[in-house]
């Protein structure tokens, strides 16, 4: 005699209760505050804002706390929250030329107006575990210089003045919106960049790395990498003018890539572009390399069949929320399809065995 | 959950989804791209079906959610709870009491009526996907009605295995035009695709909606000499004795003993309540619920 398995509902409730307990951890250890995450795990928070496509440090920090530090889960929380927000309007394009830079480096010129500013970087730290941190401890105040009063010019603009790099003409066209329309291929560059800026850091890094190793090589120099805050301005129709509604921290990377040209067209360098929320420079540089690789058609290059040149492949698989959801869904019950496979394989085996016996 | 709109999605989004649904109903079997939203459950876990349900639900609806035919599988419970919370609608496990049924991998055994809607969760809406991975190519193939590749695949199955080796998500042709993936239902359910109810298919991650209006002609692909066969395990349900219902196979002891029970839990329970007893079933008791 058999009683059918029931109790999915109670199992789910109990699992959630256990999860909440595990999230809190040992109650004798002080609880982590959202402010602590925001201030001390800022790079995790930045990644969540970049891939969650929502600039809100407090919500990103809350999501990290709720997700127990699983950043893809935190990004998912932010994305799901983001979709529920009404769209009140849109800002003016942010002017990264007016960025108040915390960091600004160029690999193509030793010096340029605005100088090389390292900013708060891990770059030249020796990766030695600092055991002092385990015992906590205050840090001495960092030395300060007066901030630059005038905007820091884009380095690539100097190349453009000489016509040495391909021009990117400005356009007032309203770009398509990845979050409001289904992605239809082929995608234009604006759409590709939207997809890449919210794409999984690991995926974009891997794709970018593959171009460096020869799968769609485009030989990139970091023309400029800048991190800092930009004002967000919005037209308010009732006022009849533009006002500042806040500021966002951004990372921008412009690469100078291998040149193209022909007998009739003098050679010019080409460009890749990366722009991400927060201090997320690994992502921004990767984005620029992948952007450049995806431009092969427009620049008259050969399709070498490299994964990073394949728009459909890159854009269809770059989103970690889509990827993780579909990957993990195979945990869900599949009894019905599996049962139909069982029947089929039993039937095919029976027939095959019967034929084998008949032949003997 | 008064913080959210009725059935979670905002009205603009619902309108966009309804347009896609209407287009889908107007062109049966055609995959309509739609701007799928990020839902508070993962992609691949029914976000397409949930968005379609959210767009069609009204406060008077009574909803049933099944996964693998059962109302109490964890993800069905989770989706039902989602609509209980966000739409505060009535829910049911009884197939005949529901006006909207959201399903994953099954069509209920009991025939549906004209006043019901069946919403499918679809993982990969493109029937040609595993023959041609590129969406740009498969859309071309559909527009040119170029389905030779699919027939070659089915033929190769026969050449290799002596039978068509597709047992679920078995491709169908809709009204003689579009080849459609009926979602991963077992091929046992394929004949039921011609029904009185409206059938809506939602694929969230893949951003596609498609539909079958009532009584649409749906033909499972086959060959004259290898006709389509809706197969199931060659047993009767061990609980209710049904011999024409789709069965789940359970392993019930360490020696690998098996039993077969209806995958449609409401169907099985209704039969047991009516006094049908299978080979290993106990007389039905309300208290055993």
Give the topology:
The complex is a heterodimer of chains A (360) and B (289).
Chain A (H helix, E strand, L loop, with lengths): L7 H17 L9 H7 L1 H11 L4 H10 L4 H12 L17 E6 L49 H7 L27 H9 L3 H12 L7 E17 L4 E20 L7 E10 L3 H14 L16 H7 L2 H9 L6 H25 L1
Antiparallel strand pairs in A: 1-2, 2-3, 3-4
Helix pairs in contact in A: 2-4, 3-4, 3-5, 4-5, 7-9, 8-9
Chain B lengths: L10 H16 L5 E2 L13 H10 L5 E6 L6 H14 L2 E2 L8 E5 L12 E5 L13 H9 L4 H14 L10 E3 L3 E3 L17 E6 L4 E5 L5 E3 L26 E5 L6 E5 L2 H9 L16
Parallel strand pairs in B: 2-3, 2-4, 4-5, 5-8
Antiparallel strand pairs in B: 1-9, 6-7, 6-10, 8-9, 11-12
- N to C succession of SSEs of chain B: HEHEHEEEHHEEEEEEEH
Percentage of residues assigned to helices of chain A: 25-40%
What number is the mean pLDDT of chain B? 93
The pLDDT mean of chain A sits at 92
N-to-C terminal Cα separation of chain B, in Å? 29 Å
Please report the total strand number of chain B as a whole number. 12
Structural class given helices, strands, pairing of chain A? Answer: alpha+beta
Strand order of the largest sheet of chain B: 1-9-8-5-4-2-3
What assembly state would you assign to the polypeptide chains in this entry? heterodimer
How many extended strands of chain A? 4
**Share of residues in strands of chain B:** 15-25%
Biggest β-sheet description of chain B: 7 strands, mixed
């Amino acid at each position: 005699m058999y009683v059918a398995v029931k109790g999915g509902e109670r199992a789910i409730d109990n699992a959630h209760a256990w999860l909440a307990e595990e999230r809190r951890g040992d109650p004798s250890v002080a609880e982590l505050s959202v402010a602590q995450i925001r201030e001390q795990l800022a790079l995790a928070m930045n990644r969540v804002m970049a891939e969650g496509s929502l600039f809100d440090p407090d919500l990103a920090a809350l999501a990290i706390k709720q997700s127990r530090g699983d950043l893809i889960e935190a990004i998912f929380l932010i994305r799901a929250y983001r979709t529920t927000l009404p769209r009140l309007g849109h800002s003016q394009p942010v002017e990264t030329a007016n960025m108040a830079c915390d960091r600004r480096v160029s690999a193509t010129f030793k010096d340029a107006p605005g100088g090389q500013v390292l900013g708060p970087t891990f770059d030249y730290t020796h990766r030695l575990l600092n055991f002092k941190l385990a015992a906590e401890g205050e840090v001495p105040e960092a030395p300060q210089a007066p901030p630059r009063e005038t905007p820091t010019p884009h380095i690539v603009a100097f190349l453009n003045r000489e016509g040495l790099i391909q021009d990117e003409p400005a356009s007032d066209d309203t770009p398509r919106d990845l979050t409001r329309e289904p992605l239809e291929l082929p995608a234009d560059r604006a759409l590709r960049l939207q997809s890449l800026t919210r794409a999984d850091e690991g995926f974009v890094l891997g794709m970018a790395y593959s171009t460096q190793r020869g799968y769609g090589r485009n030989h990139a120099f970091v023309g400029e990498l800048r991190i800092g805050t930009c004002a967000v301005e919005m037209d308010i129709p009732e006022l009849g003018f533009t006002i500042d509604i806040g500021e966002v921290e951004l990372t921008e990377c412009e690469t100078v890539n291998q040149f193209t040209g022909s007998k009739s067209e003098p050679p010019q360098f080409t460009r890749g572009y990366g722009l991400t929320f927060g201090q997320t420079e690994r992502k921004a540089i990767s984005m620029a390399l992948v952007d450049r690789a995806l431009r092969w058609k427009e620049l008259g290059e050969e399709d070498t069949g490299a994964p990073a040149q394949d728009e459909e492949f890159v854009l269809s698989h770059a989103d970690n929320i889509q990827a993780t959801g579909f990957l993990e869904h195979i945990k869900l019950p599949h009894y019905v399809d599996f049962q139909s496979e069982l029947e089929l394989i039993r039937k095919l085996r029976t027939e095959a065995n019967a034929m084998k016996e008949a032949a003997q | 959950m008064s913080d959210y709109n009725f059935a979670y999605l905002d009205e603009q989004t619902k309108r966009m989804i309804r347009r896609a649904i209407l287009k889908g109903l107007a062109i049966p079997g055609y995959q309509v791209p739609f701007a799928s939203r990020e839902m508070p459950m993962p992609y691949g876990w029914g976000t397409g079906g949930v968005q379609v349900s959210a767009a069609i639900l009204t406060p008077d609806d009574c909803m049933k959610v099944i996964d693998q035919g059962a109302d109490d599988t964890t993800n069905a419970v989770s989706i039902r709870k989602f609509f209980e919370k966000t739409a505060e609608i009535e829910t049911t496990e009884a197939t005949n009491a529901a006006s909207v049924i959201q399903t994953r991998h099954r069509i209920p055994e009991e025939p549906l009526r004209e006043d019901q809607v069946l919403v499918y969760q679809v993982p990969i809406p493109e029937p040609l996907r595993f023959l041609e991975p590129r969406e740009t190519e498969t859309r071309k193939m559909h527009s040119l009605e170029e389905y030779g590749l699919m027939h070659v695949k089915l033929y190769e199955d026969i050449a290799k295995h002596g039978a068509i080796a597709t047992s679920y998500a078995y491709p169908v042709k809709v009204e003689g035009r579009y080849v459609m993936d009926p979602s991963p239902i077992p091929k046992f359910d394929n004949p039921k695709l011609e029904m009185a109810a409206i059938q809506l298919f939602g694929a969230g991650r893949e951003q596609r909606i498609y539909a079958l209006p009532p009584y649409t002609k749906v033909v499972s692909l086959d060959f004259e000499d290898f006709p389509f066969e809706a197969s199931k395990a060659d047993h009767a349900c061990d609980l209710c004795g049904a011999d024409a219902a789709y069965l789940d196979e359970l392993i019930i002891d360490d020696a690998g003993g098996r039993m077969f029970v209806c995958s449609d839990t409401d169907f099985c329970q209704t039969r047991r309540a009516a006094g049908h007893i299978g080979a290993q079933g106990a007389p039905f008791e309300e208290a055993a619920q």
